[in-house]
C-alpha cells in the first residue's frame, strides 16, 4: 500500500473530535458524503451522539445547521416551507422551511408519514424545493443526515426502497467501548469545549471539485460494478445457496456511489487516485440498505451484512498499480 499523506480535512476532523469521542467510522463517512455530494443514513440506538456529530461538523466547516425532529403529525410544509399571505403587502410570499441549510439532520426520519418523506426526497435528489409553482435551489453545499432507531417499530413508517436508494451511505453506529464511554462521561460533566470553524464554505466547495478530479482506474470501476451485480445474481458469483435470501439486489446507483465514495475517501486520505481498497472499505455502507431481503432471510436471521461478507469474499479484488496524477487546481 502506498504511503498516505495527511488529508486536507485532517484539521476539520480534529476539530470535530474535540466534541465527539470515538465514532471514527461515522465521522469519516460524514466527510465522504459531504465531499461526494451525497447523503447519509445513520442507524443506531438513542444517545450515541449522532445529532452532536452533525452539529459539530457544521460548526467546523462554518456551515448552517438545522435539525428536524420527525413526528407522525408533520406535514410537508413543516419541512420545505410554504406560501403565506402578507397583509401589509397584500400578496403571498414564500416562507422557507428548515431544509434550506447546509447540513440538515433529519432525526428519526422513519417516524414521518409518506408525504413528508417524499417532500424530503425531492430536495435530496434534485437539490431543489418546489413551493407552489416555483422551484428554489437548495444551498450549496447540502448534506442530509437522517437517523432512524432500530429498536422501535410502533408509530413508525419504514422508508420505502426508492427513498433508501437515494442515500449514498448507511452507517450502523454501535455502543462505545468502556474507555470511550469514560471519556464521554468525563467530557459531558465538565464545561463543554466549543467547536470553531476551521474551514469555510468556499474552501469546501473547492475540495468537492478536487474530489471529482480524483483518478479512478477502469479496473476499479469494473470491481464496483461486479460487486453490485453480484447482489443481483448471487449464482453467477458462486453463491447460489444464498440466492433464496435476496428478493432484489442493489441498483446501478450502488456502483456509482461506490466509485464516488472511493474518490472522496482517497481525497480525504491525501491521495489524488483511488484504490480498490477504497471501494471495498465502503462497499457495506453503500450496499446494505439497497438489498431487499426475503422472508427466508428474516426467518433464518440472515442480515444484509452477512450476505455482503460472503459477496466481498467471493469477488476478487483487482491489483491496481497506484497512479499519481496532478489534479487540476480547483
TrEMBL record:
Belongs to the MoxR family. Transmembrane segments: none annotated. Keywords: ATP-binding, Nucleotide-binding. The keyword Metal-binding does not apply. The keyword Nucleotide-binding applies. The lineage of its organism: Bacteria, Bacillati, Actinomycetota, Actinomycetes, Pseudonocardiales. This is ATPase associated with various cellular activities AAA_3. Residues 39-169 form the ATPase AAA-3 domain. It comes from the Bacteria. It comes from Pseudonocardia dioxanivorans (strain ATCC 55486 / DSM 44775 / JCM 13855 / CB1190). Residues 244-310 form the ChlI/MoxR AAA lid domain. GO terms for molecular function: ATP binding; ATP hydrolysis activity. Pfam families: AAA_3, AAA_lid_2.
